[in-house]
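Hey, I was hoping to borrow your eyes for a little while. A protein chain has come my way and I'm curious about its shape. Take your time with it, there's no hurry, and the full record follows here:
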Amino acid sequence: MIHLRRLLSKFWGLFRNARVEEELEREITAHLALLEDDFLRKGMSAEEAHLAARRAYGGVEQAKQLHRDDRSILWLEQLRQDVRYAFRQLGKSPGFTVVAIVTFALGIGANTAIFSLADLIIRRPVSLPGLDHLVSMEEQSSTSEDKGISAANYLDLVAANHTFEQLAVYQYWSAGVGGQDQPYEVIGVRVSANFFSAVGIKPTTGRDFIAGEDAEGRNHEVILSNAFWRRRFAADPSAVGKVMKLDGELYTVIGVMPPRAVFPLGAPAFWVPIAINQHMRSERQQLSLHGVGRLQTGVSLQQARGEIGGIWNSLARSYPRANANRSMLIVGLRDSIVLDYNRQFALLLMGVVGFVLLIACTNIATLQFARASGRQHEIAIRAALGASRWRVLSQLLTESIVLSLWGGATGSILSIAGVRLLRNTLPLDVQWFCDVESLTVNGAAFAFTVLLAIVSGVLSGLAPAWKYSKADATRALATESHRIAGSSNNRWHSAFVTTEIALALVLLIGATLMVKGFATLVRGQRGLEPESLLTFHVDLPQSRPPQQVRAFQDNLLSQLSTLQGIRSVALASGIPYSFYEDSTALTLEQKPATQRDQAPAAMAESVSSDYFRTLRIPLREGRWFDVGETPDTLHVAVVSESMAQRLWSGQSAIGKRLKSEDRDNAAPWLTVVGVVGDIQHELYDRSFRSILYVPYQQAPPHSLDFVIRGDSNPLQLAPSVRRIIRSLDSNLPVENLETLGGMISAQASALQYVALLVAGFGFLALILSAVGVYALMANSVAERRREIGIRMALGAQKWNVLHTVMRRALVAIGVGLTCGVVLALAFTRLLSSLIYGVSAWDTETFVVIPVVLALVALTATYIPARRTASIDPMQTLRMD
């Protein structure tokens, strides 16, 4: 307590300096007067007594300083003095100060904006109360990529667990909205009745779902998102209680959610109760639901995993066929949203802007070197008056940190504008892995800005401060103001040029490879020509029997094929780049030895006979489908080349028989009649999938993707397509009517956006590097101005001077390019392992980018060198 009071009193002393100084002055004066009286009584004259008293007392100013040190926190007082002195010194160099602040502001502001985005993606992807207590629960198949949870298993887990307050399920639902001139498709969510209480959100208008409303026949209520409420009902408060059509069925609006209710992610337009009917209560194979739960207070994730693991083992024993080759995956909801590639992109962007900040710090260090070299006389005087090296070092570092904090404050303002720009320009795909509307510069971002500013100030100021704080005071005071630059300065200048060139080269090569790689992905597989393909999606009601579905498909294909300007038309249950996923386990009639210990799986697709020709998928063996395949003929299949190699390596797949495993084991055997080439199904696929194609006549899908190859611009066919579908079913909405190239671009929009950001930061790095090299050369030739003047006065030619000035810079640039290429090889190798589509080596990039950077650096070097070679030597000597 005594120490605390002493500390507080010292802090209070800082705010009453003026009065204390007056008291100190009076006290010292009184002491001196007493000493003078003593010496006067000893017979000295007044002048002798005055001098003797001062000699006996000692240094007055030293006594005052000792008293100040005793009553203050020394380091805090020194910091206050250093900060005040730093502001005075920076005010004397307004040009340097402005340039440094702007440079810091650009580097720190960019880092703060990207940190805010990374923080959103990694730490707070969705705004839900008690997010750390929410978990995701899904069954994971070891034989396929399927994830989800079946309805029956979910109900058993709800009944048996004791670690969760609430367990809820949801599934996305693409529904057609009717009641207007043209129906349209929106993304909604089917949820269990307790979903909103489980995740901790509720409607701002109306009410939540109540128990029992997720039962069959009672599930015709809908809660609207705030955005969809404004779009559909123009934000009318009386919308609650109104009726609207979803996929031809009537739903009553019972509530409106707040603007930030965005879970599940993807900006859903509405939520309706899921109809858990009698069939679903016994269904354990279809992983059609996603589970989410809120842990009981005091229950850890590990405890929940232990209990659910025990329950799952019991379910696996009770239902071995349905739950075979599956495990229950329980992870925190945040971890289930923040996927590995999301983290990778966020950290990649942080690394890129970190490079930009390093280049900015190098530029500031260069400017501080130039400025500190002109202050050697001042520093020498301070050292001669007793200032220690540490005291001088701390003063110079304080100036650098004051600059960086000033730049950080300016950068934080820029970051707010940058974050607003990011929020308005982020592609829609980003909504599927974070809540874009929550992107702001929050407290964590401001704390990051302060920390980054301090670190940047130390990084940019340490080298110049260290070098000039150890200057020899005697030598510096004896040296003339005009000096010939030493080899030490030249070494520092060369090191900074090398660093800037190397960092900029790494960033530019990485950005170029990302842009080129993503452009290649967007173009799609060679020969596909996605821009000449028109696609659209329709969902037929599940209540339609297979005969009606087949008749609708035949009729629509027939009418589409009569349109002018088309080459072919086809349908499929899922075309490439449509996010179609329908993996099924397979049973082989004659299982190869290599397949006996595992159940093979494939992605099943129902397609029309012209599907392969329309998408230009080549036939490798056998035949394509025949228009005569019907449910009454032999059930056939065509397999992809990768599937044939995986299942029947070294054998012909033609004639092999297999079937899709289902609950009642009633699926017919399929005879393989053809093998076709592989096609990339999704943008991020690193290998070709095993695909099982069946004729749509034998397995008519309710969810349909149509694809039309046109002679010219296929979008011109869009009005005719809508007219034909409206003539067949006026209530059927048409979804995703666009070219396949547009679908690929939409799927790659996040990649392209990242590539654009990286390219922008690379361009900024190029500009900063050019400015930095120019500043280095300008400072270097300024230091050597007297030397160059003497050389020219002694007969040196301009080209000799130009060669002398540029030679060292050329060596530094060459070393920087060499180091940059080596670092870029390591960086791009890492980049290619993290991001699919980015190549680790591209000859054109590794040749063109160094040449461009070399030309920019040489130009920045040549301008000040040429100006120096043109000086008048006599004028330079007269200045001395």
User: Anything to note?
Assistant: The chain has a mean pLDDT of 79. The CA atoms of residues 406 and 536 lie 54 Å apart.
